[in-house]
Amino acid sequence: MATEKKVTAIKNTPKHLLGIQNLSVLEAKEILTEAKSFIKLNRGSSKKIDVLRGKTQINLFFEPSTRTQSSFDLAGKRLGADVMTMNMGNSALKKGETLIDTAMTLNAMHPDIIVIRHQDSGAPNLLSQKVNCTVINAGDGRREHPTQALLDALTIINRKGNIEGLKIAICGDILHSRVARSNIYLMNMLGAEVNVIAPKTLMPKGIDNLGVKSFTDMKKGLDGCDIVMMLRLQNERMQGSFLPSKREYYEFFGLTPEKLKFAKKDALLMHPGPMNRGVEIDTKLADDINVSLVKEQVELGVAVRMACLKLYCK
After folding, report:
1. Coil, strand or helix: which one is 7?
2. What is the DSSP letter of 201?
3. How far apart are CA 113 and CA 109, in angstroms?
4. Is the pLDDT of residue 89 over 80?
5. Does pTM surpass 0.85?
6. Contact 195, 202 (CB under 8 A)
7. Given this model, what pLDDT does residue 9 score?
């Protein structure tokens, strides 16, 4: 009798990971469960398996990235894929080529996976319509950054055991943050209570419609929180004056030991990186191994991206 194959939630969905909004609870949990299995592998002496042997992965990063790009690169190689990272700064796009032209060119090379980060919201979705392979969104404009939210969820689960019932604060530049949006979708989906904290100029209109509570007073927003996620000020996306000064921003919205006391005694802090020390977070707090999960986020990011590559590359 033939062995019955395991049927997964993701197997019955489109082969692209474009955003948390496109996932069901079952699919999100499947990715997180798969990612857990890679944590031990990544901490062992032998870190490579051949699950994607013979597959070709192209990393297409139109925006600079250290953590996400290197994490996807390492994830693909540890799964046995042939990984090519393209330098888009020297690409034909500089000569006037469109994203669709680039997609057609890459499609002719028959890749199995394209990981894309782009400054324009919706670019991964457009790419997915023009190629015959898996597309994974590594961040698009202000819209979404799904794998960051998934690695944040795994980091919380690894420390707290569960997300359901937790109170999570997301603080900082909510307006320009795709990380905030993906985390709002995922943390709500997994049963957390989400507070968002920002100055009025960095708070999106209608944010309460996403099922969160919004605060412009950091102390009130942190009250009783289990997890505090700090966000980077995205100056590159700001056109006009959003803040009087970085010093004033730090005074009211920078995370300090004094402000963290308003959260629960065992509250943990997170940051997607890169950190602006002394602007959105106190240096000593960022480096406090009893409180900060920043290094753990980087480590588990590889496991999550390995899970996504494995599950979506059929």
Report:
1. coil
2. G
3. 11
4. no
5. yes
6. no
7. 76
From its phi and psi, is residue 230 left (phi > 0), alpha (psi between -120 and 50) or beta? beta
Q: Say if CB 59 and CB 83 are below 8 A apart.
A: yes
In this structure, is the dihedral angle defined by the CA atoms of residues 101, 102, 106 and 107, taken in order, positive or negative?
negative
How far is residue 176 from each of residues 161, 172, 185, 243, 276, measured CA to CA in Å? 30, 10, 16, 14, 16
Contacts of residue 57, defined as CB under 8 A and 6 or more positions apart, other chains included, come to 72, 76, 81, 82, 83, 84, 111, 112, 113, 114, 115, 309, 313
Q: Which tokens is 201 given?
A: 């100029």
CA distances from 166 to 148, 155, 188, 263 (A): 19, 13, 10, 12
Calpha distance 88→114 (Å, rounded): 14
The string of DSSP letters for 229-270 reads EE----GGG--S---S-HHHHHHHHSB-HHHHTTS-TT-EEE
Detail the DSSP E strand segments found in the chain. Answer: 56-61, 82-87, 113-118, 134-140, 167-171, 193-197, 213-215, 227-230, 268-270
* Cα dihedral 173→118→308→9 (10° resolution): 90
Share of the chain above pLDDT 70, in %: 90
230, 255 Cβ separation under 8 angstroms: yes
The residues with which 85 forms a beta bridge, in sequence order, are: 59
Q: Are 66 and 120 in contact (CB under 8 A)?
A: no
| 224/168 Cα distance (integer angstroms) | 9
Instruction: Write the CA distances from 281 to 178, 195, 237, 274, 295, integer angstroms.
Output: 19, 18, 20, 11, 15
Question: Rounded distance, CA 151 to CA 259, Å?
Answer: 25
| Tokens 């028959």 found at | 110
Q: Yes or no: say if 276 and 15 are a contact pair by the CB < 8 Å rule.
A: no
- With cut-offs at 50, 70 and 90, classify the pLDDT of residue 1: very low
The alpha carbon of residue 129 and the mean position of all alpha carbons in its chain are separated, in whole angstroms, by 22
